[in-house]
Write a structure and sequence with these properties.
The complex is a heterodimer of chains A (488) and B (485). Chain A is of the alpha/beta class and 488 residues long. In chain A, 38% of the residues lie in helices and 14% in strands. In chain A, strands 1-3-2-4-6-5-10-11-9-7-8 form an 11-stranded mixed β-sheet. With 485 residues, chain B is an alpha+beta fold. Helices cover 39% and strands 18% of the residues of chain B. Chain B is built from 15 helices and 17 strands. Classes of the chains: A alpha/beta (488), B alpha+beta (485).
Chain lengths: 488, 485
C-alpha cells in the first residue's frame, strides 16, 4: 500500500475496482509521495488537497478512470483552480469554468489533481521559463525535464502522479517525455478539444497525456478524445477504443525511417539507441523503409513565424483590465498596457510576441506569415507522401538527452533546436508519441532517451499499437529515476 | 452648396443583427439588461475560451446581400483585427478582411426616402448608391465613464455586427439621408435588424470631402463621428460641407482628420488629425474554419423577402396606385400586407388604399394600435368598399360604418342592416316616388322642361326626402331624367 504511487493507471484501476484501495487513500498516498519528492523535483505549482479528497470521496470507481488522480498542466482550465500558465501575468486568476478535457476526465471518473509547472505560456523547451522557477529532471536534478510541459513529465517520471495532461505546440509533450523517460502522446490536431486550454498557437496546440505506459496513454485518450461543439477545430470523427489494437504487434507493419532526422547535431548515444530500437522492430517483424521528408530543414524557421504570430494575438488579452496582474498607478491607458505587460510577461514570451507582431506587420506579412503558411503546406505534403508508403514513422524525439539547467537559457536558438524533430508533426497536424528507448550516460548519470513514433492524422490507434509492441518487449519503461525517488 | 463645388460622401454603416445569441457564443443578445449579465468565458475573452460561429448571423448577412443585389462569396473566412482597447475583451476583434461575405450591390434612393422638405427637388431621381462590401464582425463592449473610474459592460460584446460600406457615390446630405432611410427599411423588411439608431443598432460613420467641380482630384477625406440619427447625418453633412467650402474659399488647405458632430450645437469639432495609418495586423483566425456559403444559401434564398422598392413597383402596377400611395404603403410592411389582403380581388383597389391610408391609419393612431392588432378584418374592409362602390350606401355613410366596424369588429353588411342604412335601389319603388314628386311640383317640372336643367336637383331632393334618405341618389337622378324627357 505504501508503494501504491508506483502503479500505472491500469494497475491502479484494478485495485480501485476491486476495492483493495479507496480513492481517498490513493490521493493521500500521492500527497505523501509529493511531500517527500517534490521539493527536489518542483513539478507542481499548486495542489488543492482538500478539494481532491472531497472529489475522491465522491468518486465512482466503476467508471473507466474512476478514482484516478490526474495532474494537470497549469495551462488547462479547471473550475475554481488557478491557471497561471507559468506566468506572473495570471497572478490571482482562477478559471471560472472547466476545460472540455477536464469535464471529460471527470465524466470518466478521474480526479483533476494538482497543477504542474511549465514554461511560461508553453513557450520553451526546459521549463526554465516558468515565472515560478524551473522543474528539475528526476534523473538528474541539475538538468531540465524538458518543456514546455516539464512539470507534467517530471511528476509522472518521479511517481508523483499516475498520469498527467500536457499540451504540445511544437513538441511540448513529446520532448519532456523523452527527457524524463515516460510516455507522452500528442494526438492529431482536432482530436482533442482545445476549449479551456489557454492558447499559445491555436493552429498547433493540442492536449495530450503523460503516462507510465502506452496502455495508459490509450486509456486517457479514450476519455478525452472526440468532437466538441465548443471547439470549431475539433474533428467530427468517430473515436475508437484506443486499447483495442494495442497487442496486435508490428508483423508486416511498415515503419519509415526519415533520412533527414539522422543528421549532424544528433547526439551519438541518442542515434545508437534509436537505431537499436529500429533493429528491434525489424526483429519483431516490422518492415523498415527509408523515407524522405525533404522540407524538414524549413520546419524550425516556419514554426518560429507561425507560432509567435498566433501567440502575439492570443496573448493580447492579458492586459490587466479584467483579471490577472495589473501594474500599479499607471499614468494613462497606454502606460497601463505597457507596464502591465512589461512587468507581467517574462523575456521569452516578450521575445515571441515581438517576433509574431513583426511577422504580421503590414509590409512583412507576405514575406513572413504567408510564406510560412506555404512552407507549412509543403511540410504537410511531405508527411502525406511518406504515409502513402509507411504505416508509421520512427525517429528520435529530441537530438540530445536532457541538458543542464541554465545551459541554453541565454541562447534562444540552441533552445529552439531542442524541438527540431517534434515541431514538424504540429505543422502537419499529425499524431505522435515519445516512448523510452534507452539511456545515455553523462557525467555519471543515466539520462532517458525518447523514441518518437509518428502516425498519420487520426491514426492514434496505429501509433499506440507500434509503441506498445516495443514496450511489451523491452523494459526501459519500467526504470525509475534513482536520484530523487530512492526506490526502484 | 456653392454650385462650383461638389461633395463626395461615403458611408460605413454598422448594423447589429437580430439574432437570439451572440456571434461566437450562446449568450443572449439583449438590450437594456443589468451590466455584465449576458456574458460567458468566450465573450469576456477569458483564457482558453474559443469562438463558435453563429450560422444565423452569416445567413442574415447573406440575406442582406441578396436583397441589395450583392455577390455572395462562395467561401468566407474570419480574421483577427488586432488593436488594444478596454472594451475589446481579446484585444483583437474577429472580423473579415479580404474575403467578406458580400461584395458590390446597391441601395436605391427612392423619392419618399428623401427628407420630406427635399422630396420636391430631388437632384438625381432614381439614383442608386453602389456598395463596396458587407462583412460580419463582433461588436465590442460598452464603456461607461464615471468621475474617477470607467466601467465596462460586456453585454454588448460579441453581438453580431454587420458592416456595410458604400462607394463614395453620395453627393448631397439629402442623398445620405435617403441612403440610410432606404437601407434601414431594407434591414427591417428582411428581419435582419431593428435598425434603431437610438439603441445603437444602426451606427454610421461618414467620410466627406469637397472639391471644385473643375478639379479632378478628391479633396481631403474628413471622417465624422457621433452621428446618432439619420436627420443628424444630414445636418452634420450640411454643416461640414459648408465648413470645408468656406475653408477652401479662404485659401486654407484641408487635411485628413476625424471630427465629432455635436447635435446640440449643430457643428463639428476636431477630434484628431490623421496619424500614421493603424496597422491592424490582420490574419486568418485559426480558431474558426472558413465557411462555404453554399451550405446555407438555398435556405437564405427561400427566406428572401420582396424588397421595399420591388413592392412599391408592384403595388403601382397591380393595383393601379399612384407612386405616392404605393410608397406610403410599401414603407410599412404590415400595412402593405393588410392593404393587399383587402385589395386582392376588389374592383376598387384605389378606394381600398384610401380607406387604409386615411381612415384605418388615423383610427389605429387614435387607438394606439398596430396594424397587426387592427379589429377590422381586411375582407370586411373590402366588403365596405364594395358597398360604397355599388352605391348601396353613400360615402358619408361609409365613413360611419367604418367607425362602427373599428370599434365593434362587426362586418359592414350587418352594421348596414342593423342601422337600416341600406339604400333603396328597387327601381319600381324609386319610380313610384319620382312620379309622386313630379305630380306634386308642376311648376318646377315646367321650368326644367323649359331648359332650366338645375331644377332637377330640387326634385331629386324631394325624392330623397320622401325616401328618408334611403333612395340611391344615382338611380333617383336617372329615373327623374327618364320620366321628364
Amino acid at each position: 500500500m505504501d508503494q501504491i504511487f508506483t502503479l500505472d493507471v491500469h494497475g491502479l484501476r484494478s485495485k480501485l475496482a476491486a476495492h483493495e484501495v479507496s480513492p481517498v487513500e490513493v490521493v493521500r498516498a500521492l500527497a505523501r509521495r509529493i511531500e517527500a519528492v517534490d521539493p527536489a523535483v518542483r513539478g507542481y505549482l499548486s495542489i488543492d488537497l482538500e478539494r481532491a479528497i472531497g472529489e475522491a470521496e465522491a468518486a465512482d470507481v466503476t467508471k473507466p478512470l474512476g478514482g484516478v488522480p490526474i495532474a494537470i498542466k497549469d495551462v488547462i482550465s479547471v473550475r475554481g483552480a488557478p491557471c497561471t500558465c507559468g506566468s506572473r501575468i495570471l497572478a490571482g486568476y482562477r478559471a471560472p469554468y472547466d476545460a472540455t478535457v477536464i469535464a471529460r476526465l471527470r465524466a470518466a471518473g478521474a480526479i483533476p489533481f494538482g497543477r504542474t509547472n511549465m514554461d511560461e505560456f508553453a513557450m520553451g523547451s526546459s521549463t526554465e521559463n516558468s515565472a515560478f522557477g524551473p522543474t528539475h529532471n528526476p534523473y538528474d536534478p541539475a538538468r531540465t525535464p524538458g518543456g514546455s510541459s516539464g512539470g507534467s513529465a517530471a511528476v509522472v517520471a518521479a511517481d508523483e502522479a499516475f498520469a498527467a495532461l500536457g499540451s504540445d505546440t511544437g513538441g511540448s509533450i513529446r520532448q519532456p517525455a523523452a527527457f524524463c523517460g515516460c510516455v507522452g502522446f500528442k494526438p492529431t490536431y482536432g482530436r482533442v478539444s482545445r476549449y479551456g486550454l489557454v492558447a499559445f498557437a491555436s493552429s498547433l496546440d493540442q492536449i495530450g497525456p503523460f503516462t507510465k505506459t502506452v496502455r495508459d496513454a490509450a486509456l486517457l485518450l479514450n476519455a478525452i478524445a472526440g468532437v466538441d461543439p465548443c471547439d470549431s477545430t475539433s474533428l467530427d470523427e468517430p473515436v475508437p477504443d484506443f486499447t483495442t489494437n494495442l497487442d496486435r504487434g508490428v508483423k508486416g507493419v511498415r515503419l519509415g525511417l526519415p533520412r533527414e532526422y539522422f543528421v549532424s547535431g544528433l547526439d551519438p548515444q541518442v542515434e545508437r539507441a534509436v537505431r537499436q530500437a529500429v533493429e528491434h522492430y525489424a526483429k519483431l517483424g516490422a518492415e523498415i523503409v527509408e523515407v524522405s521528408l525533404p522540407h524538414t530543414e524549413y520546419a524550425l524557421s516556419t514554426y518560429y513565424i507561425i507560432a509567435p504570430a498566433e501567440a502575439s494575438a492570443n496573448l493580447a488579452r492579458f492586459d490587466g483590465v479584467r483579471y490577472g496582474y495589473r501594474a500599479e498607478q499607471p499614468g494613462d491607458l497606454l502606460e497601463h498596457y505597457g507596464r502591465t505587460r512589461e512587468e507581467g510577461f517574462g523575456a521569452e514570451v516578450k521575445r515571441r510576441i515581438i517576433l509574431g507582431t513583426y511577422a504580421l506587420s503590414s509590409g512583412y506579412y507576405d514575406a513572413y506569415y504567408l510564406k510560412a503558411q506555404k512552407a507549412r503546406t509543403l511540410i504537410r505534403d511531405d508527411f502525406s507522401r511518406a504515409f502513402r508508403r509507411v504505416d508509421a514513422i520512427v525517429c528520435p524525439t529530441s537530438p540530445t538527452p536532457a541538458f543542464k539547467l541554465g545551459e541554453r537559457a541565454n541562447d534562444p536558438l540552441s533552445m529552439y533546436l531542442a524541438d527540431v524533430f517534434t515541431l514538424a508533426a504540429n505543422m502537419a497536424g499529425i499524431c505522435g508519441v515519445s516512448i523510452p528507448c534507452g539511456f545515455a550516460e553523462a557525467e555519471g548519470k543515466l539520462l532517458p532517451i525518447g523514441l518518437q513514433i509518428l502516425g498519420n492524422s487520426l491514426e492514434e490507434g496505429r501509433v499506440l499499437q507500434v509503441a506498445n509492441a516495443y514496450e511489451q518487449t523491452t523494459d526501459w519503461h519500467k526504470r525509475r529515476p534513482q536520484s530523487v525517488t530512492g526506490n526502484a | 452648396m456653392k454650385s462650383d463645388y461638389t461633395a463626395t460622401i461615403g458611408l460605413e454603416v454598422h448594423v447589429q443583427l437580430k439574432t437570439k445569441s451572440k456571434m461566437f457564443c450562446g449568450c443572449a443578445v439583449a438590450y437594456g439588461a443589468e451590466p455584465n449579465v449576458h456574458t460567458c468565458p468566450t465573450c469576456l475573452g477569458l483564457p482558453g475560451a474559443l469562438p463558435v460561429m453563429n450560422l444565423e448571423a452569416l445567413k442574415l448577412t447573406a440575406l442582406t446581400g441578396l436583397m441589395l443585389k450583392c455577390q455572395i462569396a462562395p467561401v468566407c473566412k474570419f480574421d483577427r483585427k488586432n488593436y488594444y482597447y478596454p472594451d475589446m475583451p481579446k484585444n483583437y476583434q474577429i472580423s473579415q478582411y479580404d474575403l467578406p461575405i458580400c461584395e458590390r450591390g446597391e441601395v436605391p434612393l427612392y423619392d419618399l426616402a428623401y427628407p420630406k422638405d427635399a422630396q420636391k427637388s430631388i437632384a438625381n431621381p432614381g439614383k442608386r448608391v453602389r456598395l463596396i462590401r458587407i462583412h460580419l464582425e463582433e461588436d465590442v463592449a460598452k464603456s461607461f465613464h464615471f468621475e474617477s473610474s470607467t466601467g465596462i459592460d460586456f453585454n454588448r460584446a460579441g453581438t453580431p455586427l454587420m458592416e456595410i460600406v458604400s462607394q463614395p457615390d453620395i453627393e448631397l446630405p439629402e442623398e445620405a439621408f435617403a441612403y440610410l432611410t432606404s437601407l434601414k427599411q431594407a434591414l427591417i423588411y428582411g428581419g435582419v435588424s431593428d435598425a434603431d439608431m437610438e439603441k445603437g443598432q444602426l451606427r454610421c460613420d461618414v467620410n466627406v470631402s469637397v472639391r471644385k467641380r473643375t478639379d479632378a482630384a478628391y479633396g481631403a477625406k474628413i471622417e465624422l463621428k457621433n452621428l446618432n440619427s439619420i436627420s443628424g447625418v444630414r445636418r452634420a453633412l450640411a454643416f461640414e460641407i459648408n465648413r470645408q467650402i468656406e475653408a477652401l474659399e479662404r485659401g486654407e488647405t484641408l487635411r485628413q482628420e476625424t471630427r465629432r458632430w455635436d447635435d446640440d450645437l449643430g457643428e463639428t469639432t476636431l477630434m484628431r488629425t490623421k496619424e500614421s495609418a493603424h496597422d491592424y495586423r490582420y490574419f486568418p483566425d485559426p480558431d474558426l474554419l472558413p465557411v462555404r456559403t453554399e451550405v446555407f444559401l438555398d435556405e437564405v434564398r427561400s427566406r428572401l423577402p420582396e424588397t421595399p422598392w420591388e413592392k412599391r413597383e408592384r403595388l403601382e402596377k397591380d393595383y393601379g396606385l399612384s407612386a405616392y400611395d404605393a410608397g406610403v404603403l410599401a414603407d410599412d410592411r404590415p400595412l402593405s400586407a393588410y392593404f393587399e389582403a383587402a385589395a386582392r380581388g376588389s374592383a376598387r383597389p384605389k378606394s381600398v388604399a384610401n380607406y387604409v391610408m386615411n381612415d384605418l391609419l388615423s383610427a389605429l393612431g387614435a387607438a394606439g394600435q398596430t396594424v397587426e392588432e387592427c379589429p377590422v378584418r381586411p375582407e370586411d374592409l373590402k366588403a365596405l368598399v364594395t358597398l360604397v362602390d355599388e352605391g348601396r350606401i353613400n360615402s358619408k355613410q361609409g365613413k360611419d360604418v367604418f367607425s362602427e366596424m373599428f370599434s365593434t369588429g362587426v362586418d359592414p353588411q350587418t352594421i348596414v342592416r342593423r342601422k337600416g342604412l341600406q339604400q333603396e335601389s328597387d327601381l319600381g319603388a324609386i319610380e313610384a316616388l319620382c312620379r309622386e314628386v313630379i305630380a306634386a311640383n308642376p311648376k318646377v317640372v315646367e321650368d326644367y322642361r323649359g331648359g332650366k336643367s338645375v331644377s332637377i336637383n330640387f326634385l331629386k331632393g324631394q325624392v330623397m326626402k320622401l325616401s328618408k334618405g334611403k333612395a340611391n341618389p344615382a338611380l333617383v337622378g336617372e329615373t327623374l331624367q327618364r320620366l321628364l324627357s
